[in-house]
Write a structure and sequence with these properties.
The structure is a single chain. This protein has helices spanning about 50-60, 75-80, 80-85, 95-115, 205-215, 235-260, 265-280, 285-300, 310-320; strands at about 15-20, 25-30, 35-40, 40, 70, 90-95, 135-140, 150-155, 160-165, 175-180, 185-190, 220-225, 230. About 40% of the residues lie in helices and about 20% in strands. A hairpin with a 4-residue loop joins strand 10 and strand 11. A 7-stranded mixed sheet has the order 1-2-3-4-5-6-7. A 6-stranded mixed sheet has the order 8-9-10-11-12-13, with helices on one face. Helix 6 packs across helix 8 (about 285-300).
Length: about 325
């Protein structure tokens, strides 16, 4: 029997946890599904229907208006629920310049691709009005070139939130929200914990340095892109270490496969030798690994800007691995 593509066989609902991390920060986590954070809304969820569930959770702790929504990056599973917050009264959808450019370049293809990969998360996709476009774009310097990134500071009634791009990693537009006074970091998919680290659109060479920039913040709580919210400096570092180990182990295998001239199927087998013993049991590992191996091989071969994933390319890759 052939193996189901990506997460098409993953149809069981996950347990939602909504927990307070500090006086003004909450984490909305889902057993390895994409997380969201709340001080402002950080990551909008995959569909308006899913976003409305998060809004219900928010209303159990606050009757304050929802004004801001942050897109930590461009992936459809993170952003297509934004219209529900606009209906709720949100006036600003915030993204980095890098994320805006990625939406222009590949947002439509990514939307189709991710809907095919995640049928459970995109139940109710008929309520998605189209691509999510930011109303506020943060420009500024490129941290990967030693420049000072642009930073947006928002005062939410005395609670100050800093928003900026600390460097490339999961994408070239990754953006964080940092509540310095409460030492809470909303990292998006720059950081994961005990879940697959999707790197299909990543900048693998730069990612470790970006993780170290996050470590330097000395956060005492973090809402990672996937996995449980981590509380306490030791557990925050544990999540950073987990992500860094995934990225470096994967990229090393990709460089070895490219140097040996392996095809994709051989590169996958080679990568499994180092990845499976460490990560093989975590949530969505089997979903992520084919896309991760493809990207690691590409970057190791000199393809700096990730190739665009389309639904058609997804299936071509999958068939090559199953052959």
């Amino acid at each position: 029997m052939s193996k189901a593509f990506a997460s098409q066989a993953d149809l069981e609902d996950k347990k939602i946890t909504f927990e307070q991390l500090s006086p003004h920060c909450w984490a909305y986590t889902a057993e390895g599904d994409p997380n969201s954070g709340v001080i402002m809304v950080s990551d909008a969820t995959a569909t308006p229907a899913m976003a409305r569930d998060l809004i219900k959770q928010i209303r159990t702790v606050s009757d304050k208006p929802i004004k801001y929504v942050l897109l930590t990056h461009y992936h459809a599973v993170r952003v297509l629920g934004a219209s529900a917050y606009v209906e709720e009264g949100a006036t600003e959808v915030i993204a980095s310049q890098g994320t805006f450019e990625l939406i222009v370049e590949r947002g439509a293809q990514d939307m189709q691709s991710e809907m095919e990969r995640f049928p459970r998360l995109f139940r109710g996709a008929d309520g998605v009005p189209g691509l999510t476009w930011p109303t506020m774009v943060i420009g500024g310097g490129d941290a990967t070139k030693g420049e000072v990134p642009g930073k947006l500071n928002i005062d939410l009634g005395g609670v100050k939130v800093q928003i900026w791009s600390p460097g490339y990693g999961h994408t070239r537009g990754d953006t964080i929200a940092w509540v310095e006074e409460e030492k809470v970091l909303f990292s998006g998919d720059l950081v994961e914990y005990e879940a697959g680290v999707y790197t299909g659109d990543a900048q693998l060479a730069e990612w470790p340095a970006t993780l170290e920039a996050l470590r330097a913040l000395q956060a005492e709580a973090i809402v990672p892109g996937r996995g449980e919210a981590m509380k306490g400096a030791a557990d925050v570092n544990k999540a950073l270490d987990y992500t860094q180990r995934w990225v470096t182990t994967l990229f090393q295998a990709g460089k070895e496969a490219a140097a040996a001239g392996m095809d994709l199927k051989a590169a996958m087998a080679h990568t499994r030798k180092s990845m499976d013993p460490i990560f093989g049991k975590v949530f969505i590992y089997e979903h992520c690994l084919p896309f991760d191996v493809s990207r690691a091989y590409d970057e190791a071969s000199g393809i700096k800007n990730p190739r665009i994933w389309t639904a058609e390319r997804d299936m071509e890759m999958w068939k090559a691995l199953q052959a």
